[in-house]
Each structure stands twice: as structure tokens, then as C-alpha cells.
Amino acid sequence: MEERNEALVAVGGNQPFGGLDLAGTIRAAMAAVARPGIGMVNKSSLYSTPCFPAGAGPDYVNAAFSLQLDGGIGPADLLAILHRIEADFGRERQARWGARSVDLDLLAFGGSVLPDVATWDQWRGLPPTRQAVEAPNQLILPHPRLQDRAFVLVPLAEVAPDWVHPALKKSVSAMLADLPQADRDAVRRL
Predict the structure, then answer these.
(1) pLDDT tier at 1 (50, 70, 90 boundaries)?
(2) pTM recorded for the entire structure
(3) How many domains does the chain have?
(4) Residue 18: which region, alpha, beta or left (left: phi > 0; alpha: psi -120 to 50)?
């Protein structure tokens, strides 16, 4: 039996692309991920979410989805595919947390913590002022701040509520419940 890997991905954007409205851009980007060796397992509803950080541009449309991957597709391979899809949809990485047509964030790859727990914890604890200007030069998984962001956890709770964060040892549902109610309420289903 062939080995299969599971991955969790968040998608969002606040700039339409190619004549599509924002929701259409997000749906098209999600559809572009499925290909030989990568199957879409589940996808969330679309959500309207406040721009992050506040005041940096128009509000976003966000969603999440889960994938099944052939054993030969690793996290770095999947990240490269996601980055190519972003580029195909007009994503230009000019400013950290800037406006974008689509952002495909690899949130988790099975139960992996990459490159190691100490490095993951260092990025998780990075102060917000440094988060705004620094990006890691290697893949960090799970995404170091997925547990802090309602715009990620609300749609992810539709897709994988019982997935347990391998470093924090909390399910998506528990991480979502830990967030302030106002943050959860700001994420509105379209």
C-alpha cells in the first residue's frame, strides 16, 4: 500500500485577479491545487475577515482545506507547488503582510514539527514587531502562529476540528475556543 501524507492549508486574499471577484479568485486557487498525487479531501466555506494587520488594506476572503498527498510529495515539494500557484494568480511578495490576490499557507504536514521543536518555538515566540519584518529562511511547521489567528482557525475548524497540533498538543477546536470571542465573531461566513 502506497504511503499517503496529509496536509492542512489556509488560503486568503484581498485583491481580485484576472476578472474574478475575490471569492472567485479564492475558489479558483483552491481548485488549482488538486493535481496528480495531490487530492483535495475537504474544504471549508469562504469567510470574510478583517484585514491583518488592521488598516493594511481591504478585508480578506479566507478558507482552509485538507489534502492527501502521495508519499513522494514532501512538505518542501508542496510548498513549492503552493508558491507557483500564488505566482500564477498574480501574487508578488513585495511587502510582508501586504495586499495580495492569493496567499496559500501550508499550515501543517501530518504531525511534523519542522525543522525541529526549538526552531518552531523560536518563531512562535517572535515579538509582533519582528514578525512584521522577518520571515524564516526555511520551512517552519506547523505554521508558528496558526493558533493565534481566528481567520485561520475558524475555517480550519470546519475541515479538521480534531487535528492535534504536534507541539501544543491542542486540537483545532480547542485552539479556536482559546481565542477571544470578538476575534472569532469578526470572521463571518460568506
Answers:
(1) very low
(2) 0.92
(3) 1
(4) left
Q: Which residue is it, cell 505566482?
A: 87
Encoded amino acid at 187, one letter: V
Q: Residue 124 sits in a domain of what CATH number?
A: 3.30.70.560
Please give the Cα distance from 148 to 52 (Å, whole number). 12
Whose cell is 523560536? That residue is 122
Cell of 72: 513522494
pLDDT in tens, 151-171: 999 999 999 999 999 999 999
pLDDT score of 69 more than 50: yes
Q: Provide the domain limits for residue 153.
A: 4-189
Angle at 80 between CA 121 and CA 46, to 5 degrees: 80
Please give the Cα distance from 71 to 76 (Å, whole number).
13
Please give the torsion angle defined by the CA atoms of residues 183, 125, 106 and 59, in that order, rounded to the nearest 10 degrees.
30
Q: Which three cell numbers stand for residue 59?
A: 478585508
